[in-house]
Design goal:
The chain is α/β, with parallel strands linked by helices and 159 residues long. It has a single domain, classed as SPOUT methyltransferase, trefoil knot domain (Alpha/beta knot). It is built from 6 helices and 7 strands, in the order βαβαβαβββαβαα. α1 runs parallel beside α2.
């Protein structure tokens, strides 16, 4: 698995996702431009002292990210996230090597990604008055379901 944050805007959200990635040994890719500097104190605070354990890559744009994973084995499937469209997370079939792509906190993912990548997942929300979940909360829900389905937590469960 891999988490991909497309142009994240809020430092504490990215820091929380980085801590999640450190805890699960999940690579984290950030797609620029970022809404903050990578040395932002709020980003560092949210990630605590776990940054050395984060497999972090920062890419200047989407195309550079795609090029960086082009020869991955198994091939990387892009799984886009959406607040309102796609297969509910509990019905979506994750595969090893999936890249779970989360969009900007205020705008989501751009249309050009939805035009290219058909796999889309959403987290059901019971209250119609709630538009979406916090991005870092969504990342945790999606990643743990993906790891559960693919037995990606086997090492942690043995401890």
């Amino acid at each position: 698995m891999r988490l991909v944050l497309y142009q994240p805007e809020i430092p504490p959200n990215t820091g929380n996702v980085a801590r999640l990635c450190a805890a699960t040994r999940t690579p984290l890719s950030l797609i620029e431009p970022l809404g903050f500097k990578i040395d932002d104190k709020h980003l560092k605070r949210a990630g605590l002292d776990y940054w050395p354990f984060v497999d972090l890559s920062v890419h200047p744009n989407w195309e550079a990210f795609v090029e960086s994973i082009r020869s991955a084995d198994p091939p990387v499937r892009m799984v886009l996230t959406s607040a309102r469209a796609g297969t509910p997370v509990h019905q979506f079939a994750f595969r090893p090597g999936d890249a779970i792509v989360l969009g900007q906190e205020t705008k989501g993912l751009p249309d050009f990604l939805h035009d290219v990548y058909p796999d889309r997942v959403r987290i059901p929300i019971a209250c119609p008055d709630v538009r979406s979940l916090n991005m870092s909360t969504a990342a945790g829900i999606l990643l743990f379901e993906a790891l559960r389905q693919t037995n990606g937590l086997a090492g942690a469960l043995a401890e």
